[in-house]
Design a protein that fits this description.
The protein is of the alpha/beta class and 354 residues long. The protein contains 15 helices and 9 strands. The longest helix has 18 residues, at 228-245. It is found in: Cytoplasm.
Length: 354
């Protein structure tokens, strides 16, 4: 299992995971904003994208290719659908892992209509032969289809109608420069502020016909890790609790009680996050400790710790990656209500970056 597969497998199971499972995708379709005015957050991206789309409409031209980068759950798929809606164009959705051969991409490109939006999620995971074909398709709106094999192979040029490619990636650094350079507009999606997430939660609660107080929305927003997808998921679980244990109306007290049942604490940490911190603090005195030893201590694979738990812990300032190993910060001791022991834990002899 690759690190990306390990991350996806675990995140889908986590309440605070940012990868969408089947239920999330169904609910997101109902909650998804339909235009830029309705889209909450990402103010700079919305302003810039609005200019790009309005200018294209004024020229009567197809919009430039768009690259959206950022963590899962921040709205990249939603923005791709808004781009299609704003341009009054159909949208075709696929993903990098689904395009493993140049022929897979050629089949998609050859069936596009003029002005159509092609949304390519996880574009960094596309195969190299398909990637090289995409260069020509984006720049010249044509591809060379190879017919036959060996010395007798023939390249047949295939003209394509003008289209807009919207690429989405969680790892922009993995995209080769020739591919990045072919996008006319590039935007990075930032994590949301709690006040923005409160607006997301109020909007979703209204669409779900759920009564919610301002303090209840604030409580959920504070535990949503800066991600609208997680905010909506927590809202649905708190709604369930409110319907079963109360009158269906969400207050701060109801939100706190519900999220305590689901083991999501005040900073948005779940069981896995706390297990990593507790092992680092209680077993190894706050570190430094190597990744392999830490993974064994929590009973997880190395990839699960480094790809799933650590990014949020590092972003929250609770854990640091150093050349000597993983080290807990003073904020981690304070969050778990522990007193620093003053001793460093044993490292496993490996470089902490591995």
């Amino acid at each position: 299992m690759t690190p990306n597969e390990a991350e996806t497998a675990v995140l889908v199971e986590r309440l605070v995971g940012s990868v969408a499972g089947g239920e999330d995708r169904a609910v997101e379709a109902a909650l998804r904003p339909k235009d830029l005015d309705e889209f909450i957050g990402q103010e700079k991206v919305r302003e810039q994208l609005d200019l790009v789309l309005r200018a294209a409409r004024a020229r009567g031209a197809t919009a430039d290719h768009v690259l959206l980068s950022g963590a899962p759950g921040l709205g990249k798929t939603t923005l791709s659908m808004i781009i299609a809606a704003e341009m009054d164009a159909p949208i075709r959705i696929t993903s990098g892992p689904a395009i493993q051969h140049a022929g897979d991409l050629a089949a998609i490109l050859s069936s596009l209509q003029e002005g159509e939006v092609l949304f390519l999620d996880e574009i960094h995971r596309m195969s190299r032969p398909a990637e090289e074909m995409l260069y020509m398709a984006m720049e010249d709106f044509r591809v060379d289809v190879i017919v036959g094999k060996g010395p007798g192979a023939t390249a047949i040029p295939l003209e394509l109608p003008p289209f807009t490619l919207v690429g989405a990636t969680t790892r922009a650094g993995l995209l080769p420069p020739p591919l990045r350079d072919r996008f006319g507009f590039t935007a990075h999606m930032e994590f949301y502020e709690p006040t923005e997430l409160e607006r997301v939660i109020h909007r979703s609660a209204n669409l779900l016909d759920v009564g919610i107080e301002a303090d209840g929305a604030a409580e959920i927003a504070g535990r949503s890790r800066g991600t609208p997808r997680i905010a909506n998921r927590l809202l649905r679980r708190v709604r369930d609790y409110a319907q079963v244990k109360a009158d269906g109306h969400i207050t701060r007290e109801i939100a706190e009680a519900a999220l305590a049942v689901y083991e999501v604490d005040a900073r948005g940490l779940d069981r896995l996050d706390r297990a990593v911190l507790e092992a680092l603090l209680k077993l190894f005195g706050g570190g430094p400790v190597g990744l392999s030893t830490l993974a064994v201590a929590v009973g997880e694979e190395r990839e699960t710790v480094t790809e799933v738990a650590e990014p949020f812990l590092v972003r929250e300032g609770l854990l640091a990656r150093t050349p000597r190993g993983r080290v807990a910060t003073p904020a981690a001791w304070a969050h778990l209500g522990l007193v620093p022991s003053g001793r460093g834990g044993p490292a496993d002899g490996r470089d902490g970056r591995h």
